[in-house]
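User: Sequence in, structure out. Go.
Assistant: Echoing your sequence, followed by the structure tokens.
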Amino acid sequence: WEGVGNNFGWRAHRHLRLEGNGVDNAANVGLNIDGSNNGHWQNISIKGTGAQAIYCTGSNWQRFTDIVVGRPVNTSYPYIQVHRVANNYLWENVGLRSEDATTDPVACVKYTNETGYVATGHQWTGTWLENLHIAEGSAVFDVTARSCLFGFPWVFDCEAVATTSTDTTIFLIRDLLGDEGGTNPWAGGNHIVGQITGQIQDTGKSAEFHENRIAFGVKINESGTRVSGLRGFQGNNVYLAAGVEDCWIELGGAEYDQDDAVAGVVDSSGNSTNTIIDPLGVGIQWGSAAKQGFYGTTPVAQQTGVAVSAAGVHAALVNLGLITA
């Protein structure tokens, strides 16, 4: 679909089954949406494609509802790719399903950019993943985008293929500003919500899955990212990479049985501007930008060496800003 639709009306495409010939062919794409605005794609299944099941570029205001996609024959291509200018998309009840034990692409849903151009304003809800065999060191959602809202997908019978990499994750939020050489000032602003999966390792399964694991639910390389939701099984839900700042990470409640020895949030940022709320892990760590002294003043250091006297206590209270002299 190229150049169809306009800015003042939907073009609807419903009840389609698209099945490729199972041949490794880069031109064999399920839906190639290029330069088409205002499209509604509903009740569509796609499988057996040589390349991407869905590829979108240069197209705005798209809505995908009740979509099931299978793994491409050539696993160097993602199931779904959004490239460059592709703004304001709604993805509802989209499922990614593998039908065999072949290792999946290094990114199953991949957002890619060009200098100065990036997808923005996408919203995902009701997403599900089934029987994925996630490549070592890869991500299911590999995101170079901004101002997007991702509902955390339901994960059914998915495993990582190998055990050693700490980069294997469901979400990887890339450093958009760094990827673009500092040319795009509108970076960040992505938000992930829902039950945030922790490290997945199921020793009860057969030998080929034994202790194979997803290391983290979310890995954040982009400042200004927010994650909020319930802490999923086994911890290691969120990882903050070095240099990341101004993020808000909130994990409330928990899926049991939890391993309380494993923190929900691993903070390698080295910055004090990230706010982390993880009651079963690091506790509460307010970002320095959120810290305030009493009555809205600048924070004051803890008073030490206070004399055990009325005068000493009085001086400490004045210093803290609780009273005036």
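User: And one key feature?
Assistant: The two ends are 74 Å apart (CA to CA).
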